[in-house]
Amino acid sequence: MSFAENLRQIREEKNISQEKLAELLDVSRQAVSKWEQGIGYPEVEKLLLLSKELDISLDSLMETEIANGENPETGNVTGSIVIESPNENIVMTCCKVMSSPQFKGGKKSPKYALIGMQSNGGSSFCGENTTFLGWYASQESIANEIRSIYEAIAKGIPAYSLKYSVKVEKHLFSVKIK
């Protein structure tokens, strides 16, 4: 599902009106409506607040697949790889990676987030657990990262360290690129 579909479904499951959600986030009801229609996306700060107010992880809220085991440059790729995210101090085994939709925000805000889907132990099927892996300044940088990860899987490389993610400073409800 897309960000818009996830947001609408989660908001409705929690019995929160667009008006109430807009009030909680200090935005207009029209802004929430646009997000749910896929016309726009919230700024990074609002996205973090949205995650908190809806009591849902950013991973679940932003789940939009860029690659589902298939990459145009590497063909159909299956397998898993250990990914290290040095900027976030995360190491996990992934069978798939995904990108968030583009975030709005200031010039110093990251524009995308990379999400890894964890494999089920020794199983060949992907699990349902997702983990945030890193922030990205541009669509080009996250696309390069995803392509590099799938190329490493195709070559049988057992581990990969993120190369294109950016370091950020985190505040209560904001994220800025260092």
From TrEMBL:
Protein's organism: Eisenbergiella massiliensis
Domain of life of the native organism: Bacteria
Annotated Gene3D superfamilies: lambda repressor-like DNA-binding domains (1.10.260.40)
Annotated Pfam families: HTH_3
Protein name (Swiss-Prot/TrEMBL): XRE family transcriptional regulator
Keywords: DNA-binding
GO terms assigned for molecular function: DNA binding
Keyword field contains Ribosomal protein: no
Domain HTH cro/C1-type: 7-61
Signal peptide feature range: none
